[in-house]
Structure to design on (181 residues):
């Protein structure tokens, strides 16, 4: 008989007690330029280097409600093939969103989705990774009575120590045409 379980997600008290004003004060004040289809160039690239700490993995577990022991239990992680806890694949993929939206393109972009994302190698606690994004295709589509503008972006996450690919795929963004009304 198939299971049909339903759960309610409640933020853990440690997150619920965070002060929103303090959180906002920690968000970098970056000035994004408006992004227009005409100004995107095939081959435009951006990358980000970061360390995936245990704290980041635990915070993501609390936000996503994914407490699988492969992510959060140190002893369990040591007993696995990976010999350590690993980051959630979607957490690693989320870093790609930041590179695309805050660094590669800019303001006014809507992430439409990830195509063919593949998790090829695990990202473990304290791994240093490089998240890269490159514009590989630009196109427009008629949607209803309007023309919409899109770009496909190749995403790649590599483990700095081994240069192995952790995650790869393509994301699609929708952007404005400069001549929009």
């Amino acid at each position: 008989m198939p299971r049909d379980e339903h759960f309610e997600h409640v933020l853990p008290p440690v997150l619920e007690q965070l002060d929103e004003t303090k959180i906002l004060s920690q968000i970098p004040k970056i000035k994004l330029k408006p992004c227009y289809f005409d100004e995107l160039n095939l081959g435009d690239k951006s990358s980000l280097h970061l360390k995936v700490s245990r704290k980041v993995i635990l915070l993501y577990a609390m936000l996503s409600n994914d407490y699988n022991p492969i992510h959060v239990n140190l002893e369990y992680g040591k007993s696995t093939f990976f010999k350590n806890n690993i980051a959630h694949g979607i957490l690693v993929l989320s870093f790609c969103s930041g590179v695309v939206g805050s660094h590669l393109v800019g303001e006014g972009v809507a992430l439409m989705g990830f195509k063919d994302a593949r998790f090829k190698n695990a990202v473990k606690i304290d791994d240093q990774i490089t998240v890269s994004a490159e514009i590989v295709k630009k196109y427009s589509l008629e949607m209803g009575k309007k023309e919409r503008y899109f770009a496909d972006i190749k995403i790649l996450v590599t483990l700095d120590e081994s240069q192995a690919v952790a995650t790869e795929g393509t994301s699609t963004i929708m952007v404005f045409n400069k001549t929009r009304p």
Summary: Residues 78 and 160 are 22 Å apart (CA to CA). Residues 35-175 form a domain with the Thiol Ester Dehydrase; Chain A fold (CATH 3.10.129.10). The longest helix spans residues 89-104. The chain has one domain: 35-175.
